[in-house]
Structure formats: C-alpha cells, structure tokens
C-alpha cells in the first residue's frame, strides 16, 4: 500500500491493523499467516507490526513530507494444505 502526499504540508500515514474480512474468517479450510511487514521510510525500510488484532505495535506509521510517498508492504503466506477456490480479504 502506497500513499503520496500531494499537499503543501506534511501528513501522517498510519496503518493500525490488518484484519481478515468476515468471509475470510468463515473459511475453516483457509490457512494463512503474515510472514513479514516493512515500512519504507526516508532512511530505508524498517520492520513494522500491526498485522492482526494484537494492536499497532511500535512501527505503524510514517510522516510524509510534501511531494513524497511512503509504502508499507505486508507479506502473506498461504499454507500448501490450505483450501482453494475462494477469496482472501482484509481490511485496515
């Protein structure tokens, strides 16, 4: 997820948590987990958290100066024995 600041002043990019949608949680055959989270900043990529109901953790946002962008990358792994033919959905 990337956000670009088109304003003339700094803004704060915050991702609090990422949680599965109702349809995703109703699939008992679906096995998955977040295996990584990284937040790009001006000094490089830093690990982040907040990928579930545990709360935002220590690195869940970044200030974005005017004209710049920030990206948070979440890595999701689906187990090889997981059910198929369905959607996986999340909301923040």
Can you tell me about this structure?
- With 92 residues, the protein is mainly beta.
- The protein has one domain (2-79).
- It has 1 helix and 8 strands.
- It has a 4-stranded antiparallel sheet with strand order 1-7-4-5, with no helix packed on it. Strands 2-6 form a two-stranded antiparallel ribbon.
Write the layout of secondary structure elements.
Blueprint lengths: L1 E3 L6 E4 L4 E2 L1 H4 L6 E10 L2 E4 L13 E4 L4 E10 L11 E2 L1
Antiparallel strand pairs: 1-7, 2-6, 3-8, 4-5, 4-7
Oligomer: single chain
First CA to last CA: what distance? 11 Å
Our count of helices gives 1
Uncertain residue ranges: none
User: Hey, roughly how much beta strand do the residues contain?
Assistant: 35-45%
Rounded to an integer in angstroms, the radius of gyration calculated over CA atoms is 15 Å
Helix-strand string? EEEHEEEEE
Record the strand order, biggest sheet: 1-7-4-5
Mean pLDDT over the residues? 79
Our count of domains comes out at 1
State the major sheet.
Answer: 4 strands, antiparallel
The portion of residues assigned to helices is under 10%
Instruction: Please tally the β strands and state the result.
Output: 8
Morphology: elongated
| Estimated structural class | mainly beta
